[in-house]
Amino acid sequence: MIAKPRALALSLALALAASVSFTPSALAAPLSEVWDLKPIFASDADWDAARQAVQADLPKLQALKGTLGKNAASLRAGLDRLSQAAQAWEKVQVYAYLQQSTDNRKAEFQQRAGLVGQLGGQYAAAVAWVDPEIQALGAAKVQAFIKAEPGLKKHAERLRNVLRRAPHTLSAESEAAIAALAPIRGATGDVRTLLVNADMRWPEIVVDGKTERVDDTRYGLLRQHPDRAVRKQVFDKFFGALGQYESTFGVTLANTVQDGTVMARLRKQPSAVGASVGQEEVPEAVYRTLVAEVHKGLPTLHRYFKLRQKMLGLPDLHYYDIYPALVEQKKTYSLDEAARLTFEATQPLGPDYQRLLKAALGANTMHAKPAEGKSGGAYQWGVYGKTPYVFLNHQDDFESVSTFAHEWGHGIHTALVNEGQPYETANYALFVAEIASTANELLLSQHMQRQAKTKEEKLYQLGYALERLRGTFFRQAMFGEFELQTHDAAARGEALNGKRFTELYCKLLKQYHGDAEGVMKIDPAYCQEWAFIPHFYRPFYVYQYATSITAALHFAERVQADPSGASAKVFLDTLRLGSSVPPYEALKRAGLDMASPAPYQTLVAKMNSIMDEMEVLLAAK
């Protein structure tokens, strides 16, 4: 689900220049299931040499201190040098973390990731003087330098952002100290990752005559089982295992929350959430409007749960009844089928998008199948100038197809950015990143609805679409509200621990799912779910899934309704902006204001229209 920016090669786009159009059958098959990291570094020894080179370069970066303000040429030379260093550092970082994701048990992978963590803090400390020095120059002098030196144009947006953050930037010495503490400040997330993926002893159960380990990877599939007794057993075992470590998870998350709260106070920010969203110039009103509109939409969510209970033929509804398909589908989807369906579904985005997708799928840059020790989830990452790397845990079900489309949405977003942006602005904010990926999911869903040959297939796809809207809009907004509450509690000086997190989460879980209204029963043991959510260690990230599916629906509906291609061009041009324009402003230019209630109300209306269609199909003989 997570896009890690700067992931795709400029050479990828250039290699496609001779192509005009493709058909799904033109896709290379079979796709590789294990990635090749040699395009980044030919060997581990080369990686280590590059790491040492980055280490040796740090004093040289520090030696630039005091030179940026001499004249326009000095500022350009210094920023160019810092960009070169950043690219070298990113390669070292990405290689190590891609490796570790494939097997968290391997000591050598852990060692490389550990070295990168240490180097990251040292690197950040070595360049911590840069922002304060630029801010000391003042806006007038910086603007005069930009006007006098054309080579500063590619750095202009960074300079604007640095000056914008001046009221919240500390002294160079303080910034260096904070940067040096980065590995320690981020250690809580690392502890959680290793606990879940390497150290915890996950329970096993027998499902359909086969022994299954109920870990954080298999849980996602097992919770969809059609047998209610199996689902209950899965939930009991999984959340029971998490509950045994409630105190440990509580300490790690409490430290993450305290870190954000303390940093906001040190930087004279009004709140942790304001500090977080303000980094990307997203108004806090976007976050607050989302939560408010989600609360207004809870009757629609409860309508969905009642429809789910009816379709599953259940006397009541429990939390473990939320994931099985409303209509059973036994069809499986290979990795190659996922690629074909994604290619077909994204045709409305036009030939440029299709060319980029075909080239990316032809590279050996996916790690596709689950394995013991492998991290859960999915992401896309890579380095500037290389093909993107996509990390999956493909389970051969339709959700895996949707995840495939999602992650390659991130990949092609990066390709589009790299076509028109230099390295300095070939990044993109998280606020926009998930729009590109989620739009692919929506296009895939609607493509599958059109392809449905029977009433059952259509109901399955409509039900899947409904569940996707629930999971990405309502569920992620609930996570976002949990983060608001935990950080507000920390700001009040309240002691936070595992038990308190469980209490806060349980209250929200019951409110969102209609426990008091008799819509769904929330069993107390399942209130441990907060410990399962890794995004909480990256505070105020998850709300962007909810805003992104809202924006993605806006664009997907327009693209499909406009055969001229004009709407697709608006969408892709918005993605191409990278970090050259603030993300909220980029969407406003495309006609979408995410601080207004209207986009969220449109999504809730879409859910109601899907349920209307399903009820008509169910009533038909």
From TrEMBL:
Residues annotated as domain Peptidase M3A/M3B catalytic: 222-601
Cofactors: Zn(2+)
InterPro entries per record: OligopepF_N_dom, OligoPept_F_C, Pept_M3A_M3B, Pept_M3A_M3B_dom
Signal peptide: 1-28
Cofactor annotation remark: Binds 1 zinc ion.
GO molecular function: metal ion binding; metalloendopeptidase activity
Keywords annotated in UniProt: Hydrolase, Metal-binding, Metalloprotease, Protease, Signal, Zinc
One GO biological process term: proteolysis
Segments forming domain Oligopeptidase F N-terminal: 133-201
Superkingdom of the source species: Bacteria
Annotated family: Belongs to the peptidase M3 family.
Alphabetical list of PANTHER family matching this protein: PROTEASE M3 THIMET OLIGOPEPTIDASE-RELATED, SACCHAROLYSIN
Name of this chain's protein: Oligoendopeptidase F family protein
Species whose genome carries this gene: Inhella gelatinilytica
Organism ancestry: Bacteria, Pseudomonadati, Pseudomonadota, Betaproteobacteria, Burkholderiales
